[in-house]
Amino acid sequence: MMDKHRYEDVGETLWTQTLDNGLRVLIVNKPDYHETYALLATDYGAIDTRYVPVGGREFVQDPAGIAHFLEHKLFEKADHDAFDLFGATGANANAFTSTTRTAYLFSASTQVAKNLDILLDFVQDPYFTDKTVNKEKGIIGQEIQMYQDDPGWRSYLGLLGNLYPQHPASVDVTGTQASIEQITPAMLYRAHKRFYHPSNMTLTVVGNCDPQTVLDVVTRNQSRKQFELATPIVRGVQADLDATAMRQHQTIQLPVVRPKVQVGIKGLVDVDDSAAGVAFQIAVRMLLEALFGDSSPLYQAWYDAGLVDDSFDYSYDAQRTFNYVALGGDANHPEELIAAIRAVIARGAQQPELTQARFERLQHAALGKYYMSLNSLSGIANALSAQSFAGANLFDYGHLLQRLTLADVRAAARQLFRLEAMTSFVILPA
Amino acid sequence: MRIELAQGVGLTVVPTKKFKTTRVAIHFLAPLAQVNVAARTLLTSVLETSSADYATQAEMSAYLETLFGASFGIGVGKEGQWHRVTAGLTLLNDQFAQEALLQQGFAFLNQVLHRPLMHAGQFDEAVFKRERHNLQLYLESLSEDRQTQASLALQALYFDDDPAQATPSFGTPAGLASVTPAGLVTAYQQLLSSDRIEIVVLGDVQPDAVEALAQTLAFAPRVVPAVALAVKGAPRAQRTQVETVPVNQAKLNLGYRTDFDLYTPAHYAAIVANDLFGGSPLSLLFTNVREKASLAYYASSSLDAMRQVLMVQTGIDAESAAKVTQLIAQQLEAVQAGEFTTDKLRVIQDGLVSNRETAYDSPRFLARQALLRALLASQPTNLAQYTAGIRAVTKAQVMAAAATFKLEAQYLLTEKTKGL
Fold this sequence. Notes:
heterodimer, A: alpha+beta, Cytochrome Bc1 Complex, Chain A, domain 1, 2 domains, seven-stranded mixed β-sheet, five-stranded mixed β-sheet, 41% helix, B: alpha+beta, six-stranded mixed β-sheet, 45% helix, globular
């Protein structure tokens, strides 16, 4: 029997069920929509290069980029490509790999049941040979080259390099041409066996679909397959919350037209995905909006002074084993911008922009933006999927936002804004 | 559905309960040949960041926050031979917000469009200088994105006999440098008093109430020039350009002339032919150039029906340019020669239909359809009409459509001088 939870404030219902083999299934029915969007995700990403294989005792070390390589390679089978199976129904398929997750998805307006079978089958039935693996090295090699030409990507990776010199978060998700060269079919099978067990995966289906029908299709599909009993995953990657393990600053030159700045603040406290952890993340995003958002007097002063323009952006990323704030964009005077950001961080929780009136306005706006974001099926599915192990999910956000106080935001500033955790990365025109 | 609020000022209301939002878009349209696109782009920045009621961007954003975090922006684009400036506002819908947000949203648009920050008939000098400077820097840095650079360069090469089409919708650094404070005021007045205006409102709304709100914008009647939407040019000789810059991955982009009338069977055939050639992940370019030959990270094509051009874009190794060029030509020949099964054709059609159905879940797409229907009599009025057009395409029609695709422009962005 599926668990059914109604969220009255947003008018959404979430159906959940964990199958006998451990696969979590999350379903949201949106009967007005044509589309159904399904996402099958594993809790395995670019940082998980070190782990104990199933049945083994010792850690193994895989080459950087293996999770992304595996994602590419799963589509190809002995006599067909999974892309074509989706395509034959008119559906679109895709996949992506991040630092901590790998996800496979389709979007379909018809034949949802058939596409669910295709999705589960291609992800759970690996096929790797020397020939197909070697061919893929050419394709991913091209992808790596392309990212090298993207100054935004270089600047993001540069910042991560400063924040996490001893942690795999700083390694490009795609790996390097040298690292992917070492990948073999045996390594791919070994990683698949460890991380693609149903108990490490979540299937999220959002759209025009009947929840019971979806669950029946998935249950039937899974009952046709044999899986070993789930065993605990032992990962080599450790949390990096160490301010001494950082590079303070780095400048590189690239063929760009405008200088680029990224400032990072390393999180020195682990942020998990309990309800408290999720609330903390909301508080941090509110803090950043208050200080650096479009309505901030501070941002306006910087904008008027020519320190920033509308390329300036900020984000907070909290992942398994690491979390950090990133701020930056194109800057005509990189040193001045870094100094200005440093002055803000030095103020800790004492920020003139954090008034009660302003907090209430931002809270009201955040609530509206959250409700508006629920128009997007892919947005709902991605958020639900990413939090499938968490103590709070996307549909709890409204309540968490309403419960947030100015004191929470100040506390977030006190915890995160530490000068010793700050780093900067600059790209100058060659 | 479309009503005339005044001569040359249209309103289309699309009531739907499907979304949690209401979208308001006010489109200003003028023939490209009659406007200064750089001035119009600068105008969008100036209007977006200042007004008599909200002197700074911070004040304007703070007001939008009180409207439940409404999102507002002004952008530019091209619709064939026309230039478009769009002021767009997305609001939480009134039922959900339990507040008259739509009314407040219209009042806000009224303020921003009709009450700019001006002194003695000129835009605020500091705002003018700052926004022109920022836009200048932005235009100069577009080449940092090599895909954008290649795509703009191909557009310039393909339309090298038509300056209005060769120039991007947002202008060029040279064009912007010549915009004066007086020129910006002229562009503003022209936009408000001479441009064709199309207002689109989509969401859980009452058409009568929306009409009353739209009337408060008080746009005066105007005479809309008789300029066609579609860009029709005559076939020309092939032209080639190679540009060298420090890149790891080369970009090869190609432009083909096409020839059909909008939303005739020939247009639907061209849509299917493009999808089979390079428009879909199941296309020949994707499967044979990217997947099979492992020669490109991306290889795709897109059809710009209003401008009658099909563009191919690829990211490749510089050494492979000649080989990729040849492979692309072979894929088009295969479509022309009918070297595809009827199964494949059906799958491509299914994909197009499915994508269209999915697009109908997007408020922005639906609002854009309303604009296009206002501009183009032949634009499909509903989903069924479009899908019927796609489904009716035969193999012979696809081959015939592909036979009309003529390669005219080849652009290579590469590190080395060898290549094409």
